[in-house]
Amino acid sequence: MNKELFEYVLRVGDDSLILGQRLSEWCGHGPILEEDIALTNIALDLIGQATNLFEYASQIEGGKRSADQLAFLRFDREYRNLLLVEQPNGDFGDTIMRQFLFDAFRKPFFERLTFCTDMQLSGIAEKSLKETKYHLKHSSEWVIRLGDGTEESHNRIQNSLDSLWRYTDELFFENDVDASLLNEYHLPILSDVKQEWIKNVENVLNEATLTIPNNNWQFKGGREGLHSEHLGKILAEMQYMQRAYPNMEW
After folding, report:
1. What is the CATH number that goes with domain 3-210+219-244?
2. If pLDDT is split at 50, 70 and 90, which confidence band does 243 have?
3. Which of 39, 55, 93, 250 could potentially form a cystine with 67 if both were Cys, beta carbons 3.0 to 4.6 Å apart?
4. Mean pLDDT of 193-201
């Protein structure tokens, strides 16, 4: 088994899974009907991405665990998702800002991953990129609408940015896993992704009349299995059926 490739695929899959689970919490609670449907559809896109990635991870592992087992039956320390995606939904502004900061990363990331020499990963990235372009358009438009809207909407979305910015540095986390795979599989160089991310984020935030926080807080740990207390609460709900009724099939 290629342990490094397995770890890499889990990272990407876990980001989609946990953020998809977070967004699904909005189903039936959106501020307007159209937005309720939009957030639910984005959640479904993310869960679909996670499914494809976990199926591939299962293949890499030699079928030791199924995609469902990888998604639902790991302990919290075994998840490799970003701290950003596990943060609570908060109000609508918090959800939109979290989504925007993530989407602005995912788009250039998937664009580069389509050139990966691993055909499975390349194919998943190509399909996911089409969805991610829509996700970014949706979240960008809402950030601008809220930031350049009323005084209250501006202040609240600025507070969301101030709160979530501390988690953005982890988007570009790299360790020995990346180093061992980079040249062999022609994976995205995250320093290049970061430059495009910064440019896109600054453009949208400027149009939204929002200010990037002036601090150096850098919260990390998710990529190495060190999570906030929020992930445990997500997993308690997400894993209940699978743990209460082992091997259950619909």
Report:
1. 1.20.1260.10
2. confident
3. 55
4. 97
What gap in Å lies between CA 109 and CA 243, rounded to an integer? Answer: 34
Torsion (CA) 12, 53, 111, 200 in degrees, nearest 10: -40
**What whole-number distance in Å separates Cα of residue 191 and Cα of residue 197?**
10
Distance CA 61, CA 81 (A): 19
Nearest to 98 by CA among 50, 39, 139, 148: 139
**pLDDT > 80? residue 21:** yes
CB 131 within 8 A of CB 45: yes
pLDDT at 250 over 70: no
Residue whose structure tokens are 């998840």: 79
Task: Measure the CA angle with vertex 190, ends 229 and 228; round to 5°.
Answer: 5
Per-residue model confidence (pLDDT) at position 66: 93
Question: The tokens 């679909």 sit on which residue?
Answer: 48
Q: Which is nearest to 90 in space by CA: 23, 28, 145?
A: 23
Q: Are 110 and 176 in contact (CB under 8 A)?
A: no
Q: What is the rounded distance in angstroms from the CA atom of residue 119 to the CA atom of residue 101?
A: 28
